[in-house]
Amino acid sequence: MSNLQGKKVAILTETGFEESELLSPKEALEKEGATVHVISPAKEIKGWKDGNWSKEVKIDLALDSANAEDYHALVVPGGVINPDKLRMNEKAVNFMKSFFEKGKPVAAICHGPQALIETGALEGREMTSWPSIKTDLKNAGVNWVDEECVCDSGLVTSRKPDDLPAFNKKLIEEIKEGVHEDQKTV
Description:
The protein is 30% helix and 25% strand. The protein is an alpha/beta fold. Helix 1 (19-31) packs across helix 6.
C-alpha cells in the first residue's frame, strides 16, 4: 500500500505556472498513491518553461466546482503570472484560505507564496520564496528565510525549481501528518 493512499490533493493554478513546479509535485504525490486534481478558474492553462510558454495541462476540475473540504492538502505552483492571477480572484483566495482555516497542509514554491498573502493567514509564519517577493512576504508579517525548504506547522515553502526534491519530500511528509490543529485559523 502506498503512503498517501486515500489522500486527495488540490493543485490550484492559473495559466502562467512554472511547468516543473506543477508537474514535479503532481508526479511525486501520485507516485505515493495520492489522488491529485489540477484545479483552475481558467478553462485552459498553459505552463511556462525556460522563459517561454510551454505545454497546456489538463484541468481536472473548475474552481467553481471545487470544494476545499474534499481535499487533504493544497499545492500552489509558482511562475510569475500564476500567483498574480490567483491573488486577484476572490474564489481562488477563499479556496486557499479554507485550507488554512482547517489546519490542512499548504505548499507553495517560488512565486506561489505571493498568492497566499491574500488569505491573511501568513502573519508570524516562517517561509521562503523566490527572492523578488521577499519584501511582499515580510510586509505580510512573515519571517522570511533563504533556505531550500521551510516548513512551519504544515506550511511548506521553497525558493525555486532546484528545490523541488526537498519540497516534494516535505510536502509528502506533511500530508502524512495531516491536520495541524495548532494552525487552524477558525
